[in-house]
Amino acid sequence: MIPHGPEQERSDIRVHVCIEARQIYIFSREAAIEIVQEKMGSGAKGFPVYTGDIKTAFGYPVPWEEIRDIIEIPFPDSIPEYELAITASTSEKGRYAEDIWVQMSEEDGQEIYKKLIEKGIVSANISPRKVDDIKLQKSGIDTEIRIPEFTAQVKCDYRGGSKEHGGTGNLFIQIFECNPYEQH
């Protein structure tokens, strides 16, 4: 097992895709680090995760409401139920979670971005820049406006999420992983 959790990541946000609860949970990497440090500092017991007979991860189940500034968003009706088995490989689960996140971002990206800004998870600061290129100015472009980009770590948290929606009530925050077959 090697350290692999929010402290080693470079992402801005974490997206936990919870299959059984049909919800996604979005929060900042900093909020994930805070909760891990709190769990470790309090002596909370962590738990292993197995894929078959192989221990593939170790981390903490965290009640999702305890995570600072978390956003809960239901899957849209366009995402079919349970296309992924709990016994799928970690790589299959990861790809499936990424596909759901991308689809939800494409379908409702403006609303998701608005919620991220409202919670202060991503910046709303735009960067206008005057255009000096005469050809561009003649074509009617006087300024360019850049919107901040951000990156996401997407996790398949198969049984995680709100109990109200069929999840465990927790999100699993991984701090160690084992990837013996180098599958990504």
Secondary structure layout:
Blueprint: E1 2-3, E2 13-18, E3 23-28, H1 29-41, E4 47-51, E5 54-63, E6 71-74, H2 90-118, E7 127-130, H3 134-138, E8 143-146, E9 152-156, E10 170-177
Parallel strand pairs: 2-9
Antiparallel strand pairs: 1-10, 2-3, 3-6, 4-5, 5-10, 7-8
Gist of the model:
This protein is α+β, with helices and mostly antiparallel strands and 184 residues long. Helix content is 26%, strand content 29%. The chain has one domain.
The number of helical segments is 3
Percent helix range: 25-40%
Helix-strand string: EEEHEEEHEHEEE
Q: Span from first to last CA?
A: 16 Å
What topology, given as strand order, has the largest sheet? 1-10-5-4
Largest sheet: 4 strands, antiparallel
Beta strand %: 25-35%
State mean pLDDT (0 to 100 scale).
90
Count of distinct strands: 10
Rg calculated over all Cα atoms: 19 Å
Shape: globular
Structural class assignment: alpha+beta
| Integer count of domains | 1
- Low-confidence blocks of residues: none
